[in-house]
Design brief:
Largest sheet: 5 strands, antiparallel
Radius of gyration: 18 Å
CATH superfamily: Molybdopterin cofactor biosynthesis C (MoaC) domain
CATH topology: Alpha-Beta Plaits
Shape: elongated
Order of helices and strands: EHEEHHEEHEE
Number of strands: 7
CATH architecture: 2-Layer Sandwich
Strand order of the largest sheet: 4-5-1-6-7
Number of helices: 4
Number of domains: 1
Oligomer: single chain
CATH class: Alpha Beta
Strand content: 25-35%
Amino acid sequence: MASRRRTLTHVDPKGMPTMVDVSGKAVTAREAIAACKVRFPAAVAVQLRASGLRTAKGGIVETAIIAGTMAVKRTHELIPFCHPLPVDSCRLTVDWVGERDLDITCTVKTTHRTGVEMEALTGATVAALTVYDMCKALSHAIVIGPARLLGKRGGRRDVGKAAP
């Protein structure tokens, strides 16, 4: 099988930025899962665990989930060449991993002509930014990232792990 050379999809033949034309693609079920990590200084992590992830601003996890969901639905307003998509499902989870890290995972589903990778990445990263915002009074040494696509399915090819 001959390998196909990959090219940037958001650049036209003249080198100008452009939105991808998806009008000829089939409407299929699509899903993407992305994650972003938030790492706290050890003392801050101890304090947050003791408070049940609550601050004077409110529940950190609850607020991050709401912010991430709002971001998913507005991705096309934030990323110039993203298509507006009907979001069929959006689920964010926030879990401690080890002593100092919160892992935020965002799963997005749609039935459309284009995928939801950018929506899942936007949801996970905005949720992480929200955690930072709610905790920055405790420390500015909080680190966000890496943000990464864990998997996608639907469309031309599946990548990584996505729910069956």
